[in-house]
Amino acid sequence: MPWELILAKVFAIGILLFGAFKIIQKVFSEQYNLLVASFKNKHTVTIGISKKGRQLLHSLKDDQQEKAIVIERTAEHANINSVKKEGHLVLIGDAEEKNTLMEAGIKRAKRLIVFLENEQAVIEIMETTQEIYRKCKPEQLLKCYIHLRNPRLIDLMKNAGLRFEQSNMEMHFFNIQKMVARAFFAKLPLIFRDKDWNIQQLKKVIFLGYGEYAKALMIQTLRIFHLHEDEKLEILIYSDQADRDRNNFKEQFPKADHVYPIQFKEFKGSYQELLQENQLQQDNQESLFIVASDDDQSNLNHAIEILYKTKGFSSFPIFCLNTEGKGLRSLISQEEEMDRLYFFGNMEDTCHVEFITGEKQDILAQAIHDDYRKLLAGSSSESSSYTSDWLTLSEDAKDASRTQADHIIYKLLLTNRPLIDPKDEDLDFNTEELERLAIIEHNRWMAHRYMQGWDFAEQRDDLLKLHPSLIAWEDLSESERQKDRDTIIRLKTLFAALKK
User: How far apart are CA 322 and CA 113, in angstroms?
Assistant: First the structure.
């Protein structure tokens, strides 16, 4: 027999044996994973191993020394090996199917994190999980952390979840864009204090680029960025599709222009025109400049162009959304000429367990809500939609406390108080400070109501979203003014309660 034929046969047999080995290995590996999963108890189940999912799992291992069970739909996903190397167990399957969730030990899990962009898939997964818990009624409490962008969907899911309130499940919702916006505006006063910049000089907030992140930042600007008694601020958004973006935002938030004047402008690629329009080619400390499209590369390109076109004759800071470029951020931070460029929203800060569960981020908001409920005990002056326990509150009602909490650091900044862990004496305000902060607090409260679609009427109507206090400070009754003063006065009681 010719040696070539012998070699071909040997080669063919080798390929067959290798193929058989890979099949056996795969089958064995899958069975082994299922066996290991069957022994897991009080564990975390996560869905998907995208870049965000992988970073979350990395945080779970480093911050909480926990190894999760991950459900991934794609068997050949590029991140599988890196996730496995950290000790997490990867099960290949569709998390929308009951069998897959059962194999992941969902009945014995303590936590389920569904961090997907596809909202339909998120809802299907939660429906299947609720069905399992409704039928089996496990003793183990399952805390579900669910990523949804649309607050209306959140309220729909929350109301649906009430049907299964006896099934030992808790549903918590998070929105990464909204959380990035809150984190950005929480850090901004610290930067201004560190650089000795006067935040009250700001008269304009400029956004270059528009998307889900920019919209969340805009909403947070309108809700908490209140620095003056007379509300001297305007918002400009430079967008590739300004007319469409303006119409969409106006339809969703029809009362937003009651807060600040808002302009959507077409950005046609001319940085020079943008700079001239906003007088940014001189030393301008009156503008907060934020580059925040949903695309990291576009943001970086925009930020660097603006930086270099104003180099040497302007010192205004440029805040740039950058979620994934860790190495690039590190490289740029070493360049002195880049010291005006501030990155935010990076994945290492946002895709970790604490940020997603929001337990620390909402501590102050929950304390404000609990304090509010105590003050209203026995009173019928407030709607029940604002006085139920935190877990069952609507997102609108939660945001009322969140925005009040998020603005506290600005009140401290405006009165030159310590921004972190203020002492009791730091929260004693003189008469002038108290009146000034009360006016700003009233403006902030009105802004939040306007963003939720409320308007003025002489008689309050929660169904029609009408409120008699949506008027200027000088037109308020003295009793209504005192409510705003009391909000400032009770900061000391609030912080004292948190320290216990």
Answer: 24
The CATH number given to whatever domain includes residue 368 is 1.10.490
Q: Are 288 and 204 in contact (CB under 8 A)?
A: yes
What is the amino acid identity at position 387? T
For 409-442, how does the pLDDT look when each residue is reduced to its tens digit (9 = 90+)? 999 999 999 999 899 999 999 999 999 999 999 9
Domain final residue pick, 348, 377, 410: 348
Range of the domain at 326: 178-348
> Are both 183 and 145 inside the same structural domain?
no
Kindly state whether residues 372 and 278 are assigned to the same domain. Answer: no
SS3 494: helix
Structure tokens at 174: 């998070």
Angle at 84 (CA atoms; ends 69, 141), nearest 5 degrees: 15
Residues in the chain: 500
Look at residue 139 and give its three-state secondary structure.
Answer: coil
Q: How far apart are CA 252 and CA 195, in angstroms?
A: 36
- For residue 140, pLDDT beyond 70: yes
Half-sphere exposure of 28 (CA within 13 A, CB side): 6
Both tokens assigned to 242? 């300004």
Q: How far apart are CA 376 and CA 383, in angstroms?
A: 11
Gap between the Cα atoms of 101 and 94, Å rounded = 8
